[in-house]
Design brief:
- The chain has a five-stranded antiparallel sheet, with no helix packed on it. A four-stranded antiparallel sheet has the order 5-4-7-8.
- It has helices spanning 5-16, 21-33, 35-54, 62-73, 106-141, 245-250; strands at residues 171-176, 185-190, 196-200, 209-216, 224-229, 234-237, 252-259, 274-277, 279-282.
- It is rod-shaped, with a radius of gyration of 51 Å.
- The longest helix is centred in the middle third of the chain and has 36 residues, at 106-141.
- It contains six helices and nine strands, in the order αααααββββββαβββ.
- By secondary structure, it is α+β, with helices and mostly antiparallel strands.
- α1 crosses α3 and α2 crosses α3 (35-54).
- The chain folds into two domains: 5-89 and 103-150, no CATH class; 171-283, Immunoglobulin-like (Sandwich), CATH 2.60.40.
- The two termini are 73 Å apart.
């Protein structure tokens, strides 16, 4: 059901408590017979409920009551208003000091209703504005003071961070062969860790003997043993970490045939059967290209 602005303002003032006793009785009577109007009053009650959460009851001081009584006592008498159809006041007695005040006309009554309506709307608008400002302030500063339904919902934002690809380390490979023949072994070296892997390709098996890998460099003097190459397809060793990168990159890598388990004194006992030098296959700068 649609209600006029007067009805809406009346419901709001009822919730605010600004009506007199007769007006409150009128609103309560309407609520008892009109469920839709009661819903309008309940809606205003919900809107103003936030004010009750922020303001506690305060007992006025005694001096405040005294001032109110004094103000009422010196108030000038109000000019009576006669509504259409009402019984007019009796004429003044003969001993009255003067003529009775003029009775307000229907236009005055209508103007009074208009003023009261706009006054009620202004009160409601002011109360709503104050409630909204207070609600926003509490939501920003102390949202835990509000009921669960009025608290702002947390905003969750998912941010995807793409980690950069790990940098590519330089990789070196040497083909260990004899006189340009078929590759006997493939040597791979990681420049960052200086670990190496030897893969057996075409080297024939040695009965009762072992292949041993050597690093040959002018900076080091005699060849340095890098260990025995195992019988499986791949052999991994971390021993190059004890040499500087330039030596590792520029050295010659050779393979000799030694006794089972390798040379006992760390010196080669025969000439190399396979040899080769490292070449760069994956540059370190490839990750930035």
């Amino acid at each position: 059901m649609a209600y006029s602005e007067d009805h809406i303002a009346l419901a709001a003032e009822y919730v605010l408590g600004t009506l007199n006793a007769d007006e409150r009785a009128q609103v309560e009577a309407m609520m008892s017979v009109d469920a839709d109007f009661k819903a309008v009053v309940d809606a205003w009650d919900q809107k103003f409920a936030v004010l009750n959460l922020m303001v506690g009851s305060v007992e006025p001081r005694a001096e405040v009551w005294e001032k109110i009584r004094a103000a009422i006592g010196i108030a000038e008498p109000q000019v009576p208003l006669i509504l259409p159809g009402a019984t007019p006041a009796p004429p003044p007695a003969a001993n009255d000091a003067g003529p009775a005040p003029a009775i307000a006309t229907t236009n005055v009554v209508a103007f009074s209703r208009e003023v009261r309506r706009w006054r009620g709307i202004a009160r409601v608008a002011s109360a709503l504005a104050a409630a909204l400002v207070a609600l926003l302030a509490i939501q920003l500063v102390r949202p835990d003071w509000l009921p669960e339904g009025l608290r702002p919902k947390p905003r969750v934002q998912v941010v995807q961070v793409q980690a950069p690809a790990p940098p590519l380390h330089a990789q070196y490979v040497a083909v260990l062969q004899k006189d340009g023949g078929a590759p006997a072994f493939i040597l791979t070296v990681d420049a960052a860790t200086r670990n190496f892997t030897v893969r057996k390709v075409e080297a024939p098996a040695q009965t009762g003997k072992s292949y041993e890998l050597w690093l040959i460099s002018d900076k080091l003097g005699p060849p340095r043993s890098l260990g025995v190459i195992g019988g499986s397809e791949f052999t991994e060793r971390p021993v190059l970490a004890s040499y500087d990168p330039d030596t590792v990159k520029n050295a010659t890598y050779a393979v000799t045939v030694e006794q089972q388990g390798g040379t006992p004194d760390g010196k080669p006992t025969s000439a190399p059967v396979y040899a080769g030098k490292l070449i760069e296959t994956v540059p370190a700068a490839a990750s930035s290209r």
